[in-house]
Amino acid sequence: MILLDGKKVSNDIKNEITEEVKKMKAKGEKVPHLAAIIVGNDGASLTYVASKVKACERVGFESTMIRMSNTTSEIELLDKIEELNLNDEIDGFIIQLPLPKQIDTQKVLMAVDPDKDVDGFHPMNFGKMALDMSTFIPATPFGILELLDRYNVETKGKHTVVIGRSHIVGRPMSILMGRKGFPGNSTVTITHSHTKNITQITSQADIIISALGVPNFLKAEMVKDDVVIIDVGITRVADESSPKGYVITGDVDFENVSKKASFITPVPGGVGPMTIAMLLKNTLLARELRHK
């Protein structure tokens, strides 16, 4: 069993980006600038955005964090997005989700300039991805592809089962794993909450990508020997023995499934660290596109 070490690979990517930025600085060129808008005081969102800002510092990017109150109106947020769309200093920006209930998330994501949409959520970028055109791939799916690529995990002709159909992970992964090229060229089955006999499907899978958010959902008896497991689930589970009072748990019963797997991502330390690394990579791409 080989561990798909997202922590190591994300560090490698950050080092590669740092070198790119050093070359830009040496030539007197503008370095990439990532902005993040956060609305409200959600603890997990604040922590996540802070880690993105820290990652920007680490690689030499400029970064701007825009905090808006929980009572921000949809119009105020749309005005701020338009301001960033028109700001030539900003190469890419993200709107941290979830948004407060008074704001229509879809309308907000539609308002982002597709050329600055480094999260890859705009329908134009999603459509380009589905058509195999060059575009921003959502950071988590992009990170999974990078892990498969860097560990040379064979995907051609394999049966990939995706558990979950969210627009952020499940749906894009199902498209990407079936595309021409590597990683891709696999035969994809999507499963979800209405799928019957899920064990029958997962037990035939060569690759399983689980983005369900149900702790320890995937058990050893649901997979075959030498399966490749990508665990996207991140759930806080109460644990009094832990100093924090909780542990981070994935969708996969790691202890038992890892005994049958050929490759597997740990949680934490697998897909999670890759997400921020790929957001940086998308920002680098946005800067290149804008300064051609």
From TrEMBL:
Protein family membership: Belongs to the tetrahydrofolate dehydrogenase/cyclohydrolase family.
Keyword Disulfide bond included in the entry's annotation: no
Catalysed reaction equations from the record: (6R)-5,10-methylene-5,6,7,8-tetrahydrofolate + NADP(+) = (6R)-5,10-methenyltetrahydrofolate + NADPH; (6R)-5,10-methenyltetrahydrofolate + H2O = (6R)-10-formyltetrahydrofolate + H(+)
Upper classification of the organism: Bacteria, Pseudomonadati, Bacteroidota, Flavobacteriia, Flavobacteriales
Endpoints of the signal sequence: none
Quaternary assembly: Homodimer.
Pathway it works in: One-carbon metabolism; tetrahydrofolate interconversion
Positions of transmembrane segments: none
CDD domains found in the cross-reference section: NAD_bind_m-THF_DH_Cyclohyd
Keyword Hydrolase tagged: yes
Protein name as it appears in the record: Bifunctional protein FolD
GO cellular component, one term: cytosol
Role played: Catalyzes the oxidation of 5,10-methylenetetrahydrofolate to 5,10-methenyltetrahydrofolate and then the hydrolysis of 5,10-methenyltetrahydrofolate to 10-formyltetrahydrofolate.
GO molecular function: methenyltetrahydrofolate cyclohydrolase activity; methylenetetrahydrofolate dehydrogenase (NADP+) activity
InterPro entries attached to this UniProt entry: Aminoacid_DH-like_N_sf, NAD(P)-bd_dom_sf, THF_DH/CycHdrlase, THF_DH/CycHdrlase_cat_dom, THF_DH/CycHdrlase_CS, THF_DH/CycHdrlase_NAD-bd_dom
Top-level taxon of origin: Bacteria
GO BP terms, alphabetized: L-histidine biosynthetic process; methionine biosynthetic process; purine nucleotide biosynthetic process; tetrahydrofolate interconversion
Positions that bind NADP(+): 164-166, 234
